Amino acid sequence: MIKTSLMILSFLLAVSAAAKAECSPHTMQGQYIFSARGFIEPLAPKVQRVHAGVFVFDGVANVSGTETSSREGRIARGQKLKGKYTLNADCTGTITFDSLALPNLQTHWDLFATDGGSKANMIRTDPGAMSIRSLER
Fold it and tell me: Is the pTM of this model over 0.85?
């Protein structure tokens, strides 16, 4: 009885520790496949765009990647992505990408990581843009 109680207590403590797992930029490290969709053109808000590609997080603060996108059926392949990211202890953070179109423009995202950093979701936070991305390592 005591042995069973101790096993249950140990299991509950392990589950509790896992539920309180903390994140850091190191949590997001390696290659992630992603897909995305949204309306990201503030000047053409009814134009839907979809994306698929790969991000590479360096575990410190840098993210890079390559994507293919379709904007109203016009395909763009091999688009290079580059940016910076943060990840807080509560597994929320931000990503800022350099714009593909305009050198001085950036896009801004909120980041939400889970499962020890193996999965994440992003939502774009720039006014007039609406887009989400799902990532998986």
Answer: no
